[in-house]
Amino acid sequence: MAETLSGKLDPRMKNVWRLTDSLSVLGVGGGVGALQLAVALVANNGAFAFSLADPLGILLFIDAVVTLAALVAVLTAIPAVRYARWRYGISNEYLQIERGIIWRHHTVIPFIRVQDTDTKQGPVLRVFKLASVTVSTAAGAHEIPGLTVPEAEDLRQRTAELARLAHEDV
């Protein structure tokens, strides 16, 4: 199991992550900011003038700075590092997946344990002409995102065939 994992995601997956993570950051940052603004309006009887002398103004400013910093991170550094750390490999006995930036995950899935394989393509992946492969076991589902549609179909077919062969050998 020490072989090099040669499977890589399509480079367009970085753009998928940029888009989805940016929407998440803006949703959370905007939601927190809206909640803080609502509290400020209620606390001041509907009249709120932004001021760094006001504690609620300071909180709004901190929220804006944190949201902006997170947005810069998810648009620049994080997708590149995440992409560089994503690998998968397939042999006749098992599928391996390595991923993670801070917490590294190395998953080995023996084909004898595979119950189902599937490809899926949500609206964002469809825009980028990508798909993902999901391999399900009794322990849960394991996803390989960001493959071209033909690659995803080939990986799903190969995984299903190797799982079928592993079950026949038992």
Automatic annotation (TrEMBL):
InterPro entries: YdbS-like_PH. It holds the Pfam family bPH_2. This is PH domain-containing protein. The lineage of its organism: Bacteria, Bacillati, Actinomycetota, Coriobacteriia, Eggerthellales.
